[in-house]
Amino acid sequence: MGRLNWDALPFYSWVAFTGALVTVGGGLLVVALILYKGWTRKLWTDWLTTVDHKKIGIMYIVLAMVMLLRGFIDALMMRAQQAIAMGNEGYLPPEHFDQIFSSHGTIMIFFMAMPFLTGLINYVMPLQIGARDVAFPFLNAVSFFMTAAGAVLMLLSLVIGVFSTAGWTGYPPYSGAQYSPGVGVDYWIWSVMISGIGTTLSGVNFVTTIMTQRAPGMRLMQMPMFVWTALCSSILMVFAFPALTVVTMMLALDRTFGFHFFTNAAGGNQMQYANLFWMWGHPEVYILILPAFGVFSEVVSVFSSKRLFGYVSMVWATMAIAVLSFTVWLHHFFTMGSSANVNAAFGIATMIIAIPTGVKVFDWLFTMYRGRIRITSPMLWTMGFMVTFGIGGMTGVLLAIPAADYVMHNTTFLVAHFHNMLVPGALFGFFAGYMYWFPKAFGFQLSEVWGKRAFWFWFTGFYCAFMPLYALGFMGMSRRMEHYDVATWQPYLIFACFGAVLVLLGIICLGIQLWVSVRDRVALADTTGDPWDGRTLEWATSSPPPEYNFAHIPDVSDLDAFYEMKQTARTAPAPYEDIHLPASSVYAPLMGVAAAIFGFAVIWWIWWLAALSLAALVALTIARNVTGEPHVTIHAAEVAKIEGART
Amino acid sequence: MSASHTSPTANPQSPTYTGYLTGYVLAAVLSVIPFGAVMLGGLSTHAVMVIIGLTALIQAAVQLKYFLHIDFKHSPKENLFALAFAVVLVVLMIGGSLWIVSDLNARMMPAMGANMEMPQEL
Question: Which of B93, B101, B109, B122 to mutate to test the interface with A (most CBs of A within 10 A)?
Answer without folding.
Answer: B93
